[in-house]
Amino acid sequence: MNGRQLNILWMYPDILNLHGDRGNVAALVRICEQLGIEARLKRVNRLTDRLTDSVTGGSDISNADLILLNPGELIVMPAVIHALSEKKEALQEYAAAGKGILAVGTTGAVLAQEIVRQDGSVFEGLGLLDMKVNEREAIYGDDIIFRLMSDADTSNTKAGDSETKSEDAQSTEEPGDVCGIQIRTTDTFLAENQKALGRIVYGLGNSGESGTIYNENVGTVDSGANDSSAADSRAIYEGAVRENIIFTNALGPVLVKNPWFARRIIESILKRKYPNADIPAETDAYLTARGKTTETLWDLERKSARAIAAFNKNKKSGLS
Amino acid sequence: MNKFRFIIALWAGKVCALLIGLFFPKKGSNKSGEIACRIHPGFLNGFTGIDPEKTIFITGTNGKSTTNNLIVHVFRAAGKTVATNLEGANQKPGIATTLIKTSGCFGRMKPEYLILEVDERNLAAVYGSIPAKYLCVTNIQKDQVQRNGDPDYIYQKIKAVVNEDITIFVNNEEPRSKSLAALAGDTVSFGVAKNERGSLKEAGFGVSLPCPLCHDAIEFDYYNLANVGRFSCPSCGFGSDETPDVQISGVDYEKGTFTIRGEIFHLGYAAAHFLYNYALGYAVCTALGLRISEIQKAFETFTNIGGRLEVFRFGEKQIRYIRMKQENPETLQSVLDDISADSAEKVFLAGLETIHDITPYYSNTFYAFDCNFEPFVSSNVEKCICFGKGICFDTANRLIYAGVPFEKIVVVESDDESAVLEALAKCRSNNVYLISTIKAYEHLRKRAEGTKPHIEDVANPHGTEENDR
């Protein structure tokens, strides 16, 4: 270990219990270990838990570096939001300090401004991301592949210029592309100034538009292959991000299937926690000293990403 | 006009059923009903002679077919006449087919009892036409996420049907099913006392579920199956009854017996999930007036139609194929528990496969992360062969996360059964378990029974590379 710690607060694991996404917790612990970072995990089981550290007496929220909110049923969201609203001030301070929250699937609603259900009922979210969530009329399940936006990007409309990797739509093994599953019971609408997490390579976008760029102009020979403005106009976005607060529709569990995405989250949080350290360089040095690389560590995941990209390229999807 | 349309639809259905019976006797459990419902959308409303007091619907996520088969077996053994859908065609067209086959020329039902397995999503539509007095809810769990999204979707569908005219049979140890009791006119709860073959909660990463009433976390005292066991919600006080109306206890797997209310019954299937089928079967049969001795006698002769275990050979190797439903973690957990109960050295053929249910097909394997693999990992596994184009790597990764050493894992990136058998031939153990889709099983079996295995004698027969994980 290189002396760095990541304190993970796993919120309401029994309530937000869908889609095997408890695997995200196992992935964070495992990937931290692989990268020489000590992961400290704390479960918060009940909505009524006070979130006070029994040893230090301090707040569990202020002690945390990453709060994990796995997917849950839409019906439990008001109860979860109510419980978290009582800690809203602490959460706002936490967010302002650049610490991390990862909300997955339906639980993205918790971070939204507002949630509208099919029966017309409306409830408020925590408002930590500038987006609204609507319950879908019909459930949609499919694969999802998206390309992460770069840190420098400030606007969704610039996606074509600033993706972290845009050479080959099929090469999801490269850090920058994330693959997973989506079980969509909600659509998400980002405000104009709310940055998306990524651009859809295959699957359904945030607001329910579908798309695939397999037949587009990214790394393929096609008519209009170099017309980036045409590509931008068709861009479909996935998830949302503000500093280290992240919402993604990708299940899988997403951090199991994409350890490079987990690494990016972990390192981004630790860069804020340890401002005087060069975290990625430390990680690389840790791996090198042990004769390891992420290529060998994550060989299986890379092969999986390639196989699933090929599967999606060839399947009958119904997406345009 | 409606009656006339019904008769036309009925006769069209009967002719279709006759033709299918003559030319395709193994098929057609839906077709006749499908045609009849197309001719007359209100077709199910037209039948006469159905007594709601003698009508039983069995719904829920897991165990519908087995429980239906069991109840029908007991009723018939007791001399009752029953119309039922034993083929498992549990949606509206399948149920219409059952009624077509068992009614007279003008749609009057001939059998005394109507006992139907009903798909959860079709329950409201079927109940709207046939208002059954008795509703059995086996359990409401994660299943078919591409259609259902989450368990609450199904919970709300069933909840919308329950009313004060209904006598409901609820699982005392499954929170969602149990919570429906408050909405029905009468309730019979069924359950199983703490069982020696119960599932284990995973240390550290184990999760339960939200309370269906207040949405705080449910706590379990113990598990008999995955997310089935004595539970309570400390926040609102909802929980299992101390003792359900019908409770199985004194299970003796060796002798094949269990006890209800001091009476001993035959246990034909020594797996924990069958106990809930027997408990519900007993509860229904006694509520409908059958005698204990009739139930005891019938349980002794019960054979589950379409059992989920098939055994075949590949040379010296005996392969046990255990059926599981894709995207249903509870059935995968039951399979893993069954395999783990065998302490002999074994090979595990894991073919989770891509999901080809509705368009779009997709590569979902996340339900495997809802399962506890810990007992499996420590159950003397020689090799795990992960196959299936597209998702074999994800299957392998799930096993690695569970703690299976990398050198015990073989990945076959192919749907070609020859490649799977080639990898299997290199294993020393002759004790093999297979999970896959039925289609993949059939292909593998066909190839295995027609092929003699070629055993290689090499140092590293799998060609696996050491991985510095």
Give a written overview of the molecule.
The complex is a heterodimer of chains A (320) and B (469). Chain A has a single domain, classed as Class I glutamine amidotransferase (GATase) domain (Rossmann fold, 3-Layer(aba) Sandwich). The radius of gyration of chain A is 19 Å and the shape is globular. Chain A has 320 residues and is of the alpha/beta class. Helices cover 29% and strands 26% of the residues of chain A. Chain A has helices spanning 23-34, 60-63, 77-85, 88-96, 159-162, 228-233, 254-257, 259-273, 279-289, 294-297, 299-314, and strands spanning 4-11, 37-44, 66-69, 100-104, 114-116, 122-124, 131-148, 177-190, 198-204, 210-212, 237-238, 240-242, 245-248. In chain A, the strands form two sheets. In chain A, strands 5, 6, 7, 8, 9, 10 and 11 form a seven-stranded mixed sheet that branches. Chain A has eleven helices and 13 strands. The longest helix of chain A is centred in the last third of the chain and has 16 residues, at 299-314. Chain B has a nine-stranded mixed sheet. Chain B has a six-stranded mixed sheet with strand order 12-13-17-14-15-16, sandwiched between helices. The radius of gyration of chain B is 24 Å and the shape is globular. Chain B has two domains: 2-300, Mur-like, catalytic domain (UDP-N-acetylmuramoyl-L-alanine:D-glutamate ligase); 309-449, Protein-Tyrosine Phosphatase, Chain A, CATH 3.90.190. Residues 455-469 of chain B have low confidence and may be disordered. Chain B is an alpha/beta fold. In chain B, strand 14 (346-350), helix 12 and strand 15 (381-387) form a beta-alpha-beta unit. The interface between A and B is large, with 60 and 50 residues.
